[in-house]
Write a structure and sequence with these properties.
By secondary structure, this protein is of the alpha/beta class. It has two domains: 2-109 and 134-166 and 210-246 and 315-325, Rossmann fold; 172-208 and 250-308. Helix content is 40%, strand content 20%. The chain contains nine helices and nine strands. It has helices spanning 25-39, 57-65, 127-151, 180-195, 201-205, 216-225, 227-232, 258-279, 287-308, and strands at 11-17, 44-51, 77-83, 96-102, 152-163, 165-167, 175-177, 233-242, 317-325. The strands form two sheets. A seven-stranded mixed sheet has the order 3-2-1-4-5-9-8, with helices on both faces. Helix 4 packs across helix 9 (287-308) and helix 8 (258-279) runs antiparallel to helix 9. It is globular and about 60 Å long. It starts with 10 loop residues before the first strand and ends with a strand.
């Protein structure tokens, strides 16, 4: 994608939206950086990492400067923190040559306030609750795209790769979503904590994870109703496909080492749920109570995965969108 972009000045700007701690983002951005370094040696390259203020920025910049990072490709490279939500402007208008977002755009802009009895994620929601959450997800996705359209230079490109959903008549709502077994396991664990009086019944009933994994059709909906997006972007690629590595269980390589499997799986789940759980589902009356609830949940989740013996494998379908600004 970067190879197709011709810079218009002595500065090249790459933006990664939802960078996290950098363990994945740095490796994803590095080929784009190398493309520009190889073709335009000596030019200043700015990599704008976009994420919330509470992100672990120290780890991110350590990754950027580390052995597998991109900062050592040239002395003209400068990593930059763009602090804030990607549901707001993250860079000046018409400044970005290449935009990327990996495993981030499925997060919603705010925590939904929806009664979700029987589940804690979007794919198993029913009726009006599901429609309400979908409306929020579509507003957020359209906002994300509109902001990126303003930030990109003409002729430049955006790639979004995140968790997706495919059709499956045998599943709830006729969709099969990435991580379906994982989120159902999480709900079962939360139920045990309700039964033991550690969290309230209404806390679980009124909690939903602030995510929506889109199908290809859902990802393309904004271009059909929003003239600014339809006129501003050329859609070069839009697909949902199994992950290239271990699509049926991302921890398949550890399945024969049960302790490693459950440890890796639990650590993975903790990494993307802990901030949300701390603020909502598992929040206690004190900070100490909250931390106790969090530790109890992840301990129970680890046991749940151990006893499941691979039954709760984390499957991945990836939604990938490549866009060119006209």
């Amino acid at each position: 994608m970067a190879d197709k972009v011709l810079p218009s000045s002595d500065e090249i700007h790459i933006a990664d939206y939802g960078c996290g701690t950098g363990s994945n983002a740095i490796l994803s951005v590095k080929p784009a950086v190398k493309s520009f370094v190889d073709r335009y040696p000596g030019r200043s390259i700015f990599v704008h990492h976009v994420d919330q203020a509470e992100n672990d920025w120290n780890t991110l910049f350590d990754c950027a400067a580390g052995q597998d990072g991109y900062a050592n490709l040239s002395s003209s490279i400068r990593p930059v923190a763009s602090v804030g939500s990607f549901f707001s402007m993250a860079a000046p208008a018409s400044s970005i040559d290449v935009g990327t977002s990996f495993g981030a755009s499925h997060w919603l802009s705010t925590q939904p306030v929806i009664s979700s009895k029987g589940t804690l994620w979007f794919a198993d929601l029913q009726g009006e609750a599901r429609l309400e959450l979908k409306r929020q997800a579509q507003r957020d996705w359209e906002s994300f795209l509109t902001l990126r359209l303003r930030e990109l230079r003409s002729g430049c490109r955006l790639m979004v790769s995140t968790l997706g959903t495919i059709a499956d008549a045998g599943e709830v709502n006729g969709i099969c979503s990435s991580g379906r077994h994982t989120y159902r396991a999480m709900y079962n664990v939360a139920e045990t904590m309700v039964n033991d009086g550690l969290i309230s019944e209404h806390a679980l009933r009124d909690f939903i994870m602030p995510i929506w994994f889109m199908s290809r059709e859902e990802a393309l909906e904004p271009f059909q109703r929003n003239k600014e997006l339809a006129d501003g972007f050329l859609i070069e690629r839009a697909e949902v496909a199994p992950a290239q590595q271990n699509p049926e269980d991302i921890f398949a390589d550890q399945i024969n080492a049960p302790q490693e499997y459950e440890k890796s799986y639990t650590g993975f789940v903790r990494s993307f749920t802990v901030s949300t759980f701390r603020q909502s589902l598992l929040r206690g009356e004190t900070d100490q109570a909250t931390e106790a609830n969090l530790n109890e949940f992840y301990d129970r989740f680890k046991t749940f995965i151990r006893n499941g013996a691979g039954k709760y494998a984390f499957e991945i379908w990836l939604l990938t969108i490549e866009l060119k600004k006209r």
